[in-house]
Amino acid sequence: MVVEGPQFLKLIVSETMAGAIIGKDGTKLGEFEMRSGCRLQLSAPGKYFPGTMDRICVLGGKLTNLENCMVLIVKLVCDIPGTTTTRMLKLAVPNSAVSMVIGHGGELVRRLCHETGCRINASMRMHNMQERLIILAGAHDALVRASLEVLRVIQEDPHLKEHIHFPYEDIELPLGAWAGPQAQVEDESVPLIHPSTVAQYSKRQLVEYLRKAAPLEILMRYSLFGSTQNAMKSQGAGKLADAVSETWRLRGGAMTEAVASSSSSSLARNAIDVII
Q1: Which residues touch 211 (CB under 8 Å, ≥6 apart)?
Q2: For residue 249, what is the enclosing H or E element?
Q3: Could you state, in order of their start, the residue ranges of all structural domains in the chain?
Q4: Is 23's pLDDT higher than 70?
Q5: Which residue pairs from 100-106 have beta carbons closer than 8 angstroms and sit at least 24 positions apart in sequence?
Q6: Cβ(38)–Cβ(65) under 8 Å?
Q7: Is the pLDDT of residue 197 over 90?
Q8: What is the tens place of the pLDDT at every residue in 106-122?
Q9: What is the C-alpha to C-alpha distance for residues 14 and 103, in angstroms, rounded to an integer?
Q10: Does 7-163 match 182-275 in CATH topology?
């Protein structure tokens, strides 16, 4: 067991978010535990949840402690600068717990979305995985309400404790598998930009490209909603390059012919010209 209970929660967090939770020399992590009474532990750098490039963060303690900790985590998520107030949380829960959150005929999840003002979605089932992702998206208050409601619901699952672990031996999922085969992009016909050619494009071109070609998860993580001008101001060239690289990986770019040739670069540029 990674942490002691009696209640538990498993979050899936980006490397950036993991760093923010840990803080310099672990000081932030210690502060989280002291203020909430909850124990936290993160998977080691480079040890990712299958099918993602995100680390695993497990919480353990009494329900009140977990609730206190979730409030602090949501605040940390929402304090990350962005162009919109919408933020996202990902929870890994047993398959059986997902059914509890959805409810009969989807009744419970619809009620939770309505009452909390937060979007709540469950990923598809994955072969050899006994867990699924529940993704919450909304502004601060909505995220707090929804995360606490979901936290309480899944504690009723008798299998929850079995899944509070880090290792996933012999489980290999392609990057982006949780997003589904179409990765929730606005326009699949837009040619992918190879990461090595990012310097050829302006920030405006990259923002417009990402809005067409990037999966929803990337758009939310890099706060690429709202006006183009605000997105350009809030995201430096390095962050946009990271978003292009993630889009390339999640959309399966690495499985196509390796490097973008001058002709493929020209196709992508022509596509951007059409977009803008």
Answers
A1: 186, 219, 224
A2: helix 237-250
A3: 7-163, 182-275
A4: yes
A5: 100/153, 100/154, 100/156, 100/157, 101/134, 101/150, 101/153, 101/154
A6: yes
A7: yes
A8: 999 999 999 999 999 99
A9: 29
A10: no
The burial of 55, by beta-carbon neighbours within 10 Å (0-12 exposed, 13-18 middle, 19 or more buried), is given as: buried
- CA 205/CA 201 separation, integer angstroms: 6
In the predicted structure, residue 257 carries a pLDDT above the cut 50: no
Cα dist from 140 to 14, 29, 91, 173, 224, whole Å: 18, 21, 17, 31, 18
Tokens describing residue 45: 């750098």
Instruction: Please give the structure tokens belonging to residue 86.
Output: 């919408």
User: Which of 10, 136, 122, 142 is CA-nearest to residue 69?
Assistant: 10
- 182-275: in CATH 1.10.720: yes
Q: Is residue 34's pLDDT more than 90?
A: yes
Query: Rounded to an integer, what distance in angstroms lies between the CA atom of residue 134 and that of residue 88?
Result: 10
The answer to whether residues 11 and 55 touch, using CB atoms and an 8 Å cutoff, is no
CATH-assigned architecture of domain 7-163: 2-Layer Sandwich (3.30)
CB within 8 Å of 24: residues ≥ 6 apart: none
Instruction: List Cβ neighbours of 67 (8 Å cut-off, separation of 6 or more).
Output: 148, 151
**194 bridge partner residues:** none
% the chain with pLDDT above 70: 88
Q: Answer for the pair 197, 205: CB distance below 8 angstroms, yes or no.
A: no
Are 21 and 33 a contacting pair, CB within 8 Å? no
Residue of higher predicted confidence among 187 and 13:
13
